[in-house]
Phosphate transporter
Amino acid sequence: MVSLLTVAGIVVAVFVGFNIGGSSTGVAFGPAVGSRLVRKATAGALFVGFGFLGAWTVGRNVIATMSSSIVPAAQFTPIASVAVLFFTGASLLISNLYGVPASTSMTAVGAIVGLGLASDTLNQALMFVIVSAWIVAPLVCFTIGFVVGRYVYPYLDRYVAFTTFDLHFVQLDRSGAIPRPYLNPNASPQDIVGSLSVVAIACYMAFSAGASNAANAVAPLVGEGGALTVDQGVLLAVGAFALGSFTIARRTLETVGDDITELPILASLIVSIVGGTVITILSYLGIPASLAVSTTSTIIGLGWGRASRAATLAELATPTPERPEFDVATGALVTSRVEEAPASPTIGDIARHEEPADEPEEIPDVPDIGAEGPADLDERSLFDPKAAKRIVTMWVVTPSLAVAASYPVFAVLL
C-alpha cells in the first residue's frame, strides 16, 4: 500500500512540476520570446538548465522549510503528501488554463497550511514570517520600480534602444551539410549587447524560479522517512519543469510577451532584475515566495513611476485644472496633450508585428520632473490594468482554493 502511495505521490509531483514549468517559463522568458530573441523551444531549454542550477543550489533551503518547518515532517504521510501535491497542482492548473502565471509558492504553502490546520501542527510563528514576506516583497518591488521609473528610467532610455527584428535574432544557415548559426544582419552592435542582456536576465530569472519552485513540487516527498532524498527531489522537480516548459508554457509565453508586458525592452530588463533578485534573496533565506508576484509588482511600480514624472509629488496629491492628474486606477496621466511614443519598441509591438515609431534624429533632453508632456511616455507602455486585475485575482484565488479544498479532506483523513 505504501509503495503504491509513493508512486502516486511521484506522479502527482510530476503533475505539479509540469504546471510550474508551464507558468514559470512564461514569467522568465516571455520578454525574450516576445521580442524574437529566442524561440519558444530555446526558451524551454534555457529555463530547464538554469532552473536546475537554482534548484540544486539555493532551492535546497526552500525545500527544507516546506518539508519540515511549516508542519512537522512526520505529518507528511504518504496519503498526506499525495493530497498536498494534488491540491497544489489542481489550483495551478486552473491558473494555467486561464493563461495566467500562477503564484506557485503561495498555492503550495496554502495546501500545506490546510494540513497544518487540520492536524493542529501549523507553525504559526513561521507562517507569520512567510506571510509578512509575501506582503513586504511586492511592496519592495513596487517601490523600487516606482523610484527607477520616476528618477532613473528616462536617462537610461536615452541611450538604450532596440531594433524590431523581422526574423529571429539568431538564424541558421542550412545551405551546407551542417547548419551554421549567424546573427540577424539587421542587428547593430547596440542591439547585440542589449539582446544578449535580455536573454542573460531571462536565464537569471530561470535560476530564481528554480530556486523558489522546486520545493513546491517535491517538498512533501522529502524529509524524515520521505520517499525521496533532496537530490532525487531536485532531479524529479526539474524533469517535471521540462515537461511543462516544452508544452503548456507556450500559452503563458504569449501572455507575458503580449498581454502583461506592454513595456519597452529596457523596462523588461529592469523588471526581471528586481523581481529575480528579491526572490533569490528570499529563497536563500528559505522563504517560499512568488516570482510572478514580484515581477508584476515591479511592472506596476515602474509604470506608475514613469507616468508620475509629469508632476511633482505635491501636484499629484492635489491636482488642479492647470496640473496633470494621475489616475491611480489605470496608472495613466489624465492630460489632453498627445504623448510621443517611447524611443524603443515595446514587446507587445513586436509580438503583434507592429512597426515602432521612427527614432528622432536627435536624442531629446530628459524633461524635468513636473514638466508637461514627458517625451518618453506612452500610455500603452505602462501596464494593462485589465491584465493586472486578472493576475492579482488569480493570485488570491489559487492559494485560497488550495487551503479551502485541503482542510476538510485532511480533517477527515487525520
Notes: The mean pLDDT is 77.
